[in-house]
Amino acid sequence: MYVCLCHGVSDKKIRQLVLEEGIADMRSIKKCTALGSQCGKCIKQAKLILNETAPQLYKQAC
């Protein structure tokens, strides 16, 4: 599903950045994707996806 329509950022892309690149904060996701830099309506949904996915990153490290 598209989270950011303005820049074409999907939930899959956010999860990929977290799990494969180790990015676990909104600032870094915004740098990589320009998410939230236009209308900003996507930020809330992106934070939810980040908060769901980030714990999986730490489980993989153990």
From TrEMBL:
Transmembrane segments: none
Domain BFD-like [2Fe-2S]-binding positions: 2-52
Gene3D superfamilies xref list: BFD-like [2Fe-2S]-binding domain
InterPro entries in the record: BFD-associated_ferredoxin, BFD-like_2Fe2S-bd_dom, BFD-like_2Fe2S-bd_dom_sf
Keyword Ribonucleoprotein attributed: no
Gene Ontology MF term list: 2 iron, 2 sulfur cluster binding; metal ion binding
Keyword Disulfide bond: no
Keywords per UniProt: 2Fe-2S, Electron transport, Iron, Iron-sulfur, Metal-binding, Transport
Cofactors, names only: [2Fe-2S] cluster
Origin superkingdom: Bacteria
PANTHER family: BACTERIOFERRITIN-ASSOCIATED FERREDOXIN (PTHR37424)
Family per record: Belongs to the Bfd family.
Protein name: Bacterioferritin-associated ferredoxin
